[in-house]
Amino acid sequence: MWTTRWMHDNEALFSPFYALGARNQLMPTGEAIHAWGAYIKPVLLKTDGNEANVEAFAARSEDGGAMTVWLLNRGRALAKSG
To answer: Could you report the per-residue pLDDT of 27-45, keeping only the tens digit for each?
Structure first.
């Protein structure tokens, strides 16, 4: 993930590869990285499923008392109609 300032500012809003914008604000990719870091638990869990467009990630606390699950929609974005 390219997260530093080597970019054209007018591209930042349209690229998924920048975590920071022109004023070092979090872009959508940066928000996702922030959420991952803020809520990750120390024990990563294996996830499994058969849905092609959804990826699952999970982690739990050492004592098993708390868990975080992320579901990532890998499907194509739907175009909005007029």
So the answer is: 888 898 899 899 999 999 9
Q: How many residues does the chain have?
A: 82
The domain total for the chain is 2
**pTM of this prediction exceeds 0.90:** no
Give the Å distances, CA to CA, from 9 to 32, 42, 49: 20, 36, 39
Q: In 3-state terms, the chain is what percent helix, strand and coil (to 5)?
A: 20, 25, 50
**Which residue in 56, 50, 55, 61 sits closest to 75, CA to CA?**
55
Question: Which segments of 18-53 are extended strands (E)?
Answer: 43-45
- Identify the domain containing residue 56 by its residue range: 41-75
Q: Do residues 29 and 55 both lie within one domain?
A: no
